[in-house]
Amino acid sequence: MTGPRDEHAEAAADIAAVEQANTAFYEAMERGDFEELSGLWLPGEDLTVSCVHPGWPVLTGRGEVLRSYALIMANTEYIQFFLTDVGVSMTGDTALVTCTENILSGGPAEDGNALGPLVGQLVVATNVFRRTPDGWKLWSHHGSPVLTETGEEEDEETPS
Asked: For the SnoaL-like domain, which residue ranges apply (predicted)?
């Protein structure tokens, strides 16, 4: 018989495992490790995976989603994610992770430089994981750009 203390310990272990799976996803992207990234998504098509990259249409199905990551990795020389505001919610075998991706990236080099210009971007993301016999696997990723307001826009909205 399990008591409240055991259930709390199990829930804490599950949350830690989901947080690790989420971190592994971003670390695989940073290293450009397509094989590892592929292994982090749900296998097969029993539960159709989906992905929304900022500014892209919805991608569905494992093949389409993984092709998008291959394309991004092929065209990104450098990418680093600083995750903030990470939150995990769970119910049964499903976990929802929300976070802010503070992204620094650079494209292919221009004019003989080692790396193209670095660009910063802020994206809010929702990652849905499912428990499998092989651990927590991504079911869905949705990233939306954060639109920031400038002081000028705020001044224009102020009545005179």
From this structure: 18-146
137 has a pLDDT exceeding 80: yes
Question: 98 and 124 in contact (C-beta within 8 Å)?
Answer: yes
In total, how many domains does the chain have? 1
Q: What is the pTM of this model?
A: 0.83
Residue 121 is part of a domain; what is its CATH number?
A: 3.10.450.50
Give 131's pLDDT tier (boundaries 50, 70, 90). Answer: very high
Closest CA to 145 of 80, 60, 53: 53
Residue 153 lies in a domain: no
* Residue 81: domain span: 4-146
